[in-house]
C-alpha cells in the first residue's frame, strides 16, 4: 500500500493554524538571501534587512556578559576552581555560578529537574517578583518553560475543551495566540485595540465582544492581554489595567497576561505594572481571580531568544486544577536547565556593589537607550510617508504602521490573488531587501492595512532602512496612486 | 463572580492523560526526602534511592568533558581568543566551538534559529546518520527539538484528528506515548510485547490488533516502536525489524521509531540498527514508507537530560505535509540552541587523532561498561527473589521484572483501593527508600504485575539496593505469602 498520510488526512486543526511571523515573506527572504550569496549582482541590494521578528541577537545585539559568564561556568563547573578562571571571568560571575550550582540537586546541570523547574531558581524568581511588585510571590506558583510559547500552549490545552470555548484576544495580536487556539480547537474571540487612541484597550469593547460570543453559544474562558503590546507597542496605563482586572473578576475569566516585554518601555510617561501587582493592589487575592503571567528570556534588553528560557506565574487556581497543570508540565519532563538558569539571572541581575554591576548597567542601558532611539527614528520616518500613519512605540520591539493603500494597488494585489498588505511587503522585500510582516498575520480592522516592523536592526543600519523604505514607498505610490 | 476554572470545566483530555514516571510514587519519594532532611531518624534509611527515571546525572553520572567544554565556549565565545583559555580547555574543544560558531548565522548563540534548527548543525547530524547507516540522510529532514518528547507530541498532533484515529503502541510502553495520544484525543491501540520471549515483538500480534481496531471503526495511522525498549530493555533483531517495516509499508502506517537508546546496548549478541537503515536496505525509499526516527541527548552514555536536546528525522512525507510539520515547529520558534549544539556533538564526538579522543573514549566506555555491569547485577538479584522473574536488559536503561504477587497481597491492596503493583512499590519506598515505578504506569497484560527499575544508581550503591530490596521482599512475602 502507498503511504497514507496526505494533507487531506492530517489533523485539520494543524491545517487551520497560521503562523505569519515565519510565513511566506520570511521564506521568500531566505530564498533571496541564498540567491544574493550565490550571485551578488542579482538584486539591487547586498543584504536582507530583517525587521520581521523579535530576534535581537540575530541582528548583532550583544549578549549581556555577566549572564553568559555564569552560563559558561554552569556548563563546565570543572573550571570553577582553576586559577586561570579568575583571569577569564568576573569574580561575581564565579560566585553566582557557585551559588546556582548549590541550588541544583547534586549540582547536576545535566539532569532533568523538578517538572516546574529547579526549586532554588524558582525561589530567586519569586523573590524578584516580590521586589518588583511589592506583593508576595510563591516559588510553587512558578512553572519554568522553554520560552513563553510552551507556557501559552499549556494554558490553552488546559482551558479549551472544544470549539465552543472561546479565548478573548486582542486584534492585532501576536500570532502565537491564534495559532495555539487553532491547534487546540478553540475559538478566538477578537477584541479590537483602538488605533486612534494609540492602540487603546477599551473595557466596553471587551464587554461587547464577550456578549456577542455568548450569544453565539461560546463560553469565553480567558482574556489574553499583551502588555507592552505586540505588535502594537503600547504600554497600558494602571487605571486601564484595573478596569481589565475588574472585568475578568466579574466575568470569572482567566487573565492570561503576556508580560514578556516588561523591561522594554521607552517613554518616560509610561511604566510597566504587572497585572498581579495591579490585582493585589485592588485587594484581589488567590480566591478572587485566575491570573497567569508569562515572562521570557527572549525579550527585554537581554534578547536571549535562542536559550528558550521563561516562566509562567500561575495564581488563583484550586489545588486540584494545579495538579493537572503540574501533570502537563511533567509530560515534557522539564524545561532546559540553561534557560532556567538564565531566567533566574534576568530576574536577578548584578546589584550595586557587585563587581560586574557597572559594566552590566552600561550594557543594559546602552541597548535600551539605543532601542528607544531606533523606535523614534523609525516612527518618524513612517509618519513622513504618504498615506502611512504610525503610533508611538511606547514599549516592546515593534511598530505597526497603518498604510492607506491606493485602490489601484489593492486591485493589483487582487489580480495576483494576494492580500494587499502582503502585496506591499513582497514588493518591498524584492526591491529593497527589507522584511516586514503583513498586518493580516496579526489581524486588523477589516479594510485597513498594516505591517509590523521591528526596531531591532542595529542602529547604524537604520538610516539605510529609512532611505530605502522612503525611496521604495515613493516609487510604489507613483505607480499606484489613485 | 467567583473564578470559574475547576476540574469539572477543564479539558477532559488533560484529565484523561496519565504520566506515571512523575506520578504518585515520585511525589511520595520527594515528600520522604524532605522529611529525612528535617528529621534523619524518621525512617530506617538515610537517603532515597531513585530508580524511577532515566536521569543519569541526577544520580551522579558525570557529563562528558569534551561536550561540556564546547558548550561553555559557545555560551561565552569572548574567551575563545584568550591565552588562559588554552590552559583551561582542550585544543579540540576550542577548535570545535569555533567551527560550530561559524555554522551559526552571525555566530549568535542567543538568536532564534531556523525552525528546524541551525542548518550547519543539521548538516553534521545528517552526515553522522549517513556514517551510522550507510544510506544518505538529508539535513532538511532533520527537525531539532527540546528532547524527543516535543517531537513525539508534534507527530501525534499532526496525525490524530479524533478518537477514531488510532496509534499502535507497545504494551508495556513509555507513558509519553499514552499521555500524548490522550492529550491529542486519539486512541491508543495496544500491541503486547511477549514477555516469555524476552519482550518479543510479533508481527502476528500487530496484525491481530490492527484488525481488531479496524473492526471497532478505528483508523490506525501509525505504529510506535521503541528500540531498544523502554521500559522493557530488549533490542530488536534485524529480521524482526524488517518484518515490522514490511507491515508498516503494507498497511500504509507511519513508523514512529523511538531510537533514543541507540547507544545503550549491553550484550555482544545484539546490535542497534536504525529503522531507516533497515528500510533502505530492503530497497524502500521516500515513496514507500513514512518513517520518523526520534533521537535525544538525554540518553546514551551522555545522559544530558537537562539540556533538552534532540531531533527527529522525518522521511517519506509529501512536500505539502512537510510544510505543516514545519509550521508546527515554527509555532514554538525553535528548540534551545545549547541543546542543538549538544545534539550535533553526541552525533559527532571526538575522532581518532583528536586531542580529546582518548579521554573521551575512556569516559564513554567507563559509563557504558558500568551500566552493563549494573544491569546484570540487578537482573540477577531480581531473578533470585521469590516470585519474581526478570528478562535481560539487552539495552536502554531499565529492567521490567514481573512479580507474581500473592493473593493476600492483592487483597490487601484492594482493601486500600490501590493497584497491587503500586501497593508493592509504595511499601518498598516507605521501608527502604527505593523508588520503582509500578508497571500499571506502562501497561501490562491484565492480571500480571511488574515494576520498572532503572540501572542508573551509581555502581557503589547497587549492593545496598540489592540488599535492601532482598530483605524487604522477604519480609513482604513473609507477610503476604498465600
From TrEMBL, chains A, B:
Residues 104-467 form the Aminotransferase class I/classII large domain. Pathway: Photosynthesis; C4 acid pathway. Keywords: Aminotransferase, Pyridoxal phosphate, Transferase. Its cofactor is pyridoxal 5'-phosphate. Pfam families: Aminotran_1_2. CDD domains: AAT_like. It comes from the Eukaryota. The keyword Cell inner membrane does not apply. Homodimer. Belongs to the class-I pyridoxal-phosphate-dependent aminotransferase family. Alanine aminotransferase subfamily. This is Aminotransferase class I/classII large domain-containing protein. It comes from Gossypium arboreum.
Amino acid at each position: 500500500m502507498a503511504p497514507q498520510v496526505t494533507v487531506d488526512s492530517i489533523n485539520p486543526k494543524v491545517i487551520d493554524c497560521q503562523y505569519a511571523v515565519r510565513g511566506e515573506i520570511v521564506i521568500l527572504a531566505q530564498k533571496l538571501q541564498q540567491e544574493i550569496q550565490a550571485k551578488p549582482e542579482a538584486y539591487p541590494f547586498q543584504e536582507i534587512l530583517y525587521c520581521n521578528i523579535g530576534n535581537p541577537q540575530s541582528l548583532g545585539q550583544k549578549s549581556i556578559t555577566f549572564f553568559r559568564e555564569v552560563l559558561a561556568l554552569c556548563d563546565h563547573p570543572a573550571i570553577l576552581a582553576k586559577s586561570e578562571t579568575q583571569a577569564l571571568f568576573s569574580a561575581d560571575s564565579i560566585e553566582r555560578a557557585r551559588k546556582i550550582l548549590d541550588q541544583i540537586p547534586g549540582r547536576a546541570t545535566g539532569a532533568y529537574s523538578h517538572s516546574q523547574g529547579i526549586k532554588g531558581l524558582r525561589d530567586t524568581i519569586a523573590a524578584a517578583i516580590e521586589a518588583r511588585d511589592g506583593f508576595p510571590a510563591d516559588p510553587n506558583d512558578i512553572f519554568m518553560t522553554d520560552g513563553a510559547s510552551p507556557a501559552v500552549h499549556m494554558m490553552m490545552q488546559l482551558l479549551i475543551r472544544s470549539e465552543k470555548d472561546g479565548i478573548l484576544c486582542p486584534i492585532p495580536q501576536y500570532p502565537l495566540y491564534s495559532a495555539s487556539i487553532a491547534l487546540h480547537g478553540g475559538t478566538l474571540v477578537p477584541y479590537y485595540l483602538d488605533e486612534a487612541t494609540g492602540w487603546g484597550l477599551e473595557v466596553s469593547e471587551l464587554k461587547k465582544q464577550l456578549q456577542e460570543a455568548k450569544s453565539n453559544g461560546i463560553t469565553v474562558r480567558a482574556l489574553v492581554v499583551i502588555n507592552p503590546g505586540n505588535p502594537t507597542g503600547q504600554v497600558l496605563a494602571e487605571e486601564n489595567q484595573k478596569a481589565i482586572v475588574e472585568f475578568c473578576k466579574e466575568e470569572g475569566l482567566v487573565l492570561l497576561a503576556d508580560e514578556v516585554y516588561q523591561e522594554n518601555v521607552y517613554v518616560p510617561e509610561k511604566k510597566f505594572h504587572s497585572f498581579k501587582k495591579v490585582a493585589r493592589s485592588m485587594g484581589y487575592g488567590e480566591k478572587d481571580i485566575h491570573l497567569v503571567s508569562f515572562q521570557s528570556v527572549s525579550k527585554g534588553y537581554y534578547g536571549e531568544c535562542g536559550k528558550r528560557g521563561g516562566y509562567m506565574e500561575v495564581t488563583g487556581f484550586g489545588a486540584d486544577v494545579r495538579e493537572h497543570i503540574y501533570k502537563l508540565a511533567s509530560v515534557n519532563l522539564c524545561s532546559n536547565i540553561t534557560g532556567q538558569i538564565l531566567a533566574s539571572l534576568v530576574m536577578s541581575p548584578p546589584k550595586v556593589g557587585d563587581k560586574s554591576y557597572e559594566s552590566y548597567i552600561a550594557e543594559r542601558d546602552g541597548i535600551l537607550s539605543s532601542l528607544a532611539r531606533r523606535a523614534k527614528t523609525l516612527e518618524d520616518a513612517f509618519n513622513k510617508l504618504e498615506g502611512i500613519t504610525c503610533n508611538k512605540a511606547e514599549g516592546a520591539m515593534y511598530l505597526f504602521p497603518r498604510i492607506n493603500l491606493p485602490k489601484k494597488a489593492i486591485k493589483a494585489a487582487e489580480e495576483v490573488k494576494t492580500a494587499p498588505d502582503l502585496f506591499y511587503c513582497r514588493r518591498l522585500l524584492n526591491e529593497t531587501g527589507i522584511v516586514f510582516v503583513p498586518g493580516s498575520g496579526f489581524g486588523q480592522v477589516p479594510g485597513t492595512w498594516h505591517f509590523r516592523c521591528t526596531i531591532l536592526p542595529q542602529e547604524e543600519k537604520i538610516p539605510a532602512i529609512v532611505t530605502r523604505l522612503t525611496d521604495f514607498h515613493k516609487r510604489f505610490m507613483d505607480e499606484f496612486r489613485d
